[in-house]
Amino acid sequence: MSEKKLAINEYLKTDSDYLRGTIQEGLDTAVTGAFSEGDQQLIKFHGFYQQDDRDLRNERKEQKLEPLYSFMLRARVAGGVCSPKQWLAVDEIASNLTSSNSIRLTTRQTFQYHGISKRNLKTIIKDLDREALDSIAACGDVNRNVMCNPNPVESKLHQQAYAYAKKLSDNMLPHTKAYAEIWLDDEKLVTTEGEEVEPVYGKTYLPRKFKMAVAVPPDNDVDVYTNDLGFIAVAEAGELVGFNLVAGGGMGSTHGEVTTFPRLADDFGYIKAEDTLKFAEAIMTVQRDWGNRENRKLSRLKYTIVKHGYDVFKAEVEKRTGINFEPKRDVVIGDRGDRYGWKQGVDDNWHLTLFIEGGRVKDLPGQPLQTGLREIAKIHQGDFRMTSNQNIIVAGVPAADKDKVEALARQHGLMGKLISETRGRSIACVALPTCALAMAEAERYFPDFLTKVEALQDKHGFLDQGIVIRMTGCPNGCARPFAAEIGLVGKAPGRYNLYLGASYEGTRLNKLYRENIQETEILAELDGLFARYVAERETAETFGNYTVRIGVVAAVIDAAKEFHG
Amino acid sequence: MLLKELSSLASPLSSGQVDKLKQFTAELSAVQLAWVSGYLAATSEQGTSVVPQATAEQVITILYGSQTGNGRGVAAELAEKAQAQGYAVNLVSMGDYKTRQLKQETLMLFVVSTHGEGEAPDDAIELHKFLASKRAPKLDKLNYSILALGDSSYEFFCQTGKDFDVRLAALGATSISPLVECDVDYEEHAAKWQESVLEAVKPLVQSTGASVVSIASTTQSATASFTKQKPYTAELLVSQKLTGRDSDRDVRHVEIELGDSGISYQAGDALGVWFTNSAALVSELLENLSLNGDDQVSLGSDTMSLRDALTNKKELTQLYPGLVTGWAELSQNQALLDISTDKALVREYVNNNQVADLVQQFPASVSAEQLVSLLRGITPRLYSIASSQAEVESEVHLTVALVEDEREGVARFGGASQFLASAEEGQQVNVYVEPNNHFRLPENPDTPVIMVGPGTGVAPFRAFMQQRSAQGIAGNAWLIFGNPHFEQDFLYQTEWQQYVQSGELSRIDLAFSRDQAHKVYVQHKIIEQGETLWQWLESGAHFYVCGDAERMAKDVHQALLDVVIKFGGKTPEQAEDYLETLRAAKRYQKDVY
After folding, report:
1. Partner residue opposite A65 with nearest CB, options B244, B508, B510
2. Known catalytic residue at A82
3. Closest partner residue to A31 among B244, B500, B516, by Cβ?
4. How far apart are CA A155 and CA A343, in angstroms?
5. For B493, which of A56, A62, A64 is closest by C-beta distance?
6. How far apart are CA A82 and CA A380, in angstroms?
7. Best interface-test mutation with B: which of A64, A96, A116 has the largest number of B CBs within 10 A?
8. Is A319 a catalytic residue?
9. Known active-site residue A495
10. For residues A328 and A331, what is the distance between their CA atoms, to the nearest angstrom?
């Protein structure tokens, strides 16, 4: 076999002694708030990214100061479920050890901190560990936080689905002791030759990130088709019996490179619940062995499936599991939004879904959201569930506590504001100033942008109808913009690509409609389209479907061929 | 003179020395030559004078102990005047004076300043101690006079001068002219003292006409041609904030262009900066006193508008006790009268207020003439130079902390720091170099250096590192820096990173006091790294401290003592002696203020 030049990260992983690298030396170097370049890749596997305040780059250069480095640490919280006690710890850390003084709920049902200084990383990780929380594999070329529908109504089914999400998460965790050694001061283990430290991952882990989600129909809040591997729960008589398995989804792409594209997962068929881990491991190992390790832009599972072909890939998975896929079961794929307000579960407990704009839990003037959640956590007996729409559910509230919880929520501005159907379904990534990839604003600008869209909807008389709108600062796609009816992806400050035509449910991708345009042009386009939509739509036709039917954009079914061009 | 023309006839060197010099200099590049010339100049300034000293009977010995250079200036002036009158003079820094010579002296004139809480300046410490010790000889042959410099806003005003006076008298010496105490505006008193001592020496010393004069310490260059009294009008190039936007301090990096002035300075020197008071402050004062800025006032022999006098000639941002007592009488305000009768209260008031505060808090009616006569003359501020000419050539860089204070909603600024911080590119600024021969890099480039400079105290170490870098010295340099916050207050961070990267700075220890629950300062780093530090000291390292005198320098001294006791296995007394030996060997140098 000829020596191929691998992506630089592959050598870093190989030489890192199972993700240790020189992270410890980096921590001991006080003259900089940064890690060395190589370690910056490795720390992702430990759950955090190095970032810097991009707003201040030039200013600090003049001040003879290095960039304002800080770290974004993302926790691993399978299915987004945490206890009130854990929440209180998470909250305290945010207040004491981060410069953003906030908790950011993510689109993958976990929380992350922004603005951690290097010197505080260890303290934070230790504090999280004390509450049985960690950030292992929250980023990096491994299986990431496993999502799971937090369905508050079907409480029993949710429990069963959640149990699988947790199992998947635990099972796919890297085995290296690097995390415990570096952050928790566990004794340093010497890796001996031939020792199998990572039985599944091996020395070089996966070629790229790997995302999994468990959906419980009819909800598709987890956007199951956008994942590398998705499990759609199939129930019989209210009991989980198995899953429709989907694989090969992923949002990330690069502007201007048509070999890269977002893709939705393919349906592979039905599997029995007890075979879940077997299939997950088989698909992950096929990706481990077949995935592209030369070019990181083409290394996600979606490209592996496209390259080898659906049938070949499927056969390999069946060979590795020794089990054939059964035909997929009929399930309803419905709404991707959350169910705001109080809902009663089948177990009679109540669940309160709170809208958190941009997922940012922070004390704002007149809206002390962080304080509000803290106060609720102090009296709450159930659990908290972070949703894939960056919201939070106060779950499992006994009827007797309902009024108390609601009073606290109202008192702190967590409840009581009318949220439009569109706003309630729309998400944005963090972007500027901290994300290194962002080319344009997202989180900071999105609320104002939505207000303008709402005004247009109002003008055309359909404000009561929700449109899934998503905005990201770059085509990496953290807020899953390519699965939005209106997708806005940053190109340059104030400029976005406008994508249209995804289905409301997240079963069809969108397509580029206008490139590199500014707010006025975006709004003018939407104004025109909304006018036509209201006049021409069929009964119950969603905006995304309408734009495809009348040919504003072509439908994207085979993303590799149809997303571009 | 060109090298090839150098001969033993035209120089004070022997022919052998000339040959050696020729041989050595022939090997040097232009840059090396330039450095050597500077190095030799510095060495000769440091008092290893090759000029033989005249015999004691014929010579007036003028000794100065000076921290900021004022004392040295007065002493040099006196030496020149004495010389002009035909006296043989030996002008020498107390730091370079051999105490065993004392008993042969017959006529000595002292100029010595006092710092902080009655402390002697660095170069006077040893002599001050010696005179108070049992080793001090009988001095009944000696005639002397003392000029004491000080700042009356401090409690132990002119204490060092007074100490000298008491000790010399106790040792049997005769005062030929009484001790004169000078406040910050010392010029007039100093001139009078010079006159009276020169009068007093007449019957004691024979004027010889053309005797050997050794004035080792005056700088013979363009640097000296621009002085405090005759500064160079330079151009400000940059006033760049160094602290981050969330810092609670405003520290500036200031670059000044010396143009073709020919001014040269060495790493370790200070720059004297004249400034003008802010227009807003002057207007506020005029308004509060209901005075017209256009009124003419006389200052000495000059006449100018009151506004002009307040802006350019008078000290507005530093109070002095005399003004407080004077104002108390004018205002007849009981509260102020009460303060003015208690020295401690006056001092506290002076330290926490400016002229504008005094005027606002204790209204009084005053005429323009009265006001200017009450106010002290403006004095330039000294800043440790933060650059080396080996790197920045005709520029000089400063690290300036904007002195900023809020009193009852009104922001008050330090005069010079506000002037520099708000200065715009191209602004004119009057400056002069104040040499500091007591803060110099080691002569031997291989000698390790430990530099302790928290806050703006890091300034001269930037100069040191530039100098060492230009000389190609790698390693053997250790910086200990501290400030409140890593992200906001790491002055010159990117430059230190480069020196660390290149290996020119071999160690850096950082004390960011407010980045953790307990406060960490540079002295804690010294103790934490005690073992290594002791090894460095034992391998001959020079130890430098720059910054706050009141607390930091004392804490650092104590930390050093602790290190010497712990790792050197010494008793506290032995440790003091150890540091004293370092100091005497110029291996423990301070630039503190």
Report:
1. B244
2. no
3. B500
4. 11
5. A64
6. 12
7. A64
8. no
9. no
10. 9
DSSP string, A347-358: TS-EEEEE--GG
What is the rounded CA–CA span in Å between residue B458 and residue B462? 7
Binary contact (B515, A119; C-beta < 8 A):
yes
CA B119, B125, B127, B129 dihedral sign is: positive
Q: Cis peptide leading into A433, omega within 30 of 0?
A: yes
CA–CA gap between residue A468 and residue A335 (Å, rounded) = 10
Segment holding B392, helix H or strand E: helix B389-392
Separation between Cα atoms, residue A442 and residue A487, nearest integer Å: 12
Let me know if A211 is a catalytic residue: yes
Side by side, the strands of the sheet bearing A48-52 are: A48-52, A69-74, A111-116, A103-105, A360-361
Q: What is the pLDDT along chain B (593 residues), one digit of tens a residue?
A: 444 444 544 555 656 565 666 666 666 665 566 556 655 555 555 544 433 344 444 689 999 998 777 888 899 889 988 888 888 888 888 888 888 888 888 899 999 999 877 888 878 888 998 898 888 889 999 999 999 998 887 778 899 999 999 999 999 999 999 999 998 778 888 999 999 999 988 888 776 554 444 544 444 445 568 998 899 999 999 999 999 999 999 999 999 999 999 999 999 999 999 999 999 999 999 999 999 999 999 998 899 999 999 999 999 999 988 899 999 999 999 999 999 998 889 989 998 999 999 999 999 999 999 999 999 999 999 999 999 999 999 999 999 999 998 877 888 999 999 999 999 999 999 999 999 988 999 999 999 999 999 999 999 999 999 999 999 998 999 999 999 999 999 999 999 999 999 999 999 999 999 999 999 999 999 999 999 999 999 999 999 999 998 899 999 999 999 999 999 999 999 999 999 999 989 999 999 98
Q: Measured between CA atoms, how close is B543 to chain A, in angstroms?
A: 21
DSSP state of B261: S
C-alpha–C-alpha distance, residues B311 and B293, integer Å: 10
Does A96 contact B at CB distance below 8 Å? Answer: no
Query: How big is chain A by its Cα radius of gyration, in Å?
Result: 23
Pick the residue from chain B with its C-alpha nearest to A52: B487
| Chain A hits for B241, Cβ within 8 Å | 62-63
Interatomic CA distance for residues A238 and A246, integer angstroms: 22
The DSSP bridge pattern shows strands A469-472 and A427-428 to be: parallel
* CA B320 from centroid of its chain's CA atoms: 20
The residue to which tokens 């990839």 are assigned: A437
Distance CA B107, CA B201 (A): 8
CA distance A69 to chain B (A): 8
Question: A65 — contact with chain B (CB < 8 Å)?
Answer: yes
Which of A51, A53, A59, A63 to substitute to test the interface with B, most B CBs within 10 Å?
A63
Beta bridge mates, A522: none
3-state secondary structure B44-81: HHCCCCCCCCCCHHHEEEEEEECCCCHHHHHHHHHHHH
Q: What is the pTM of this model?
A: 0.83
> Which helix (DSSP H) or strand (DSSP E) does residue B537 occupy?
helix B530-538
> How many other CB atoms sit within 10 Å of the CB of residue B161?
27
User: What is the least distance, in Å, from the CA of A10 to any CA of chain B?
Assistant: 27
Q: From chain B, which residues contact A within 8 Å (Cβ)?
A: 240-245, 253, 486-487, 490-497, 500, 508-510, 515-516
What one-character-per-residue DSSP string does B146-180 give? EEEE--TTSSSTTHHHHHHHHHHHHTT-EEEEEEE
Has A144 been annotated as catalytic? yes
Provide the sign of the torsion angle of the four alpha carbons A415, A420, A424, A428, taken in this order.
Answer: negative
Structure tokens at A502: 């995804």
A209 catalytic? Reply is: yes
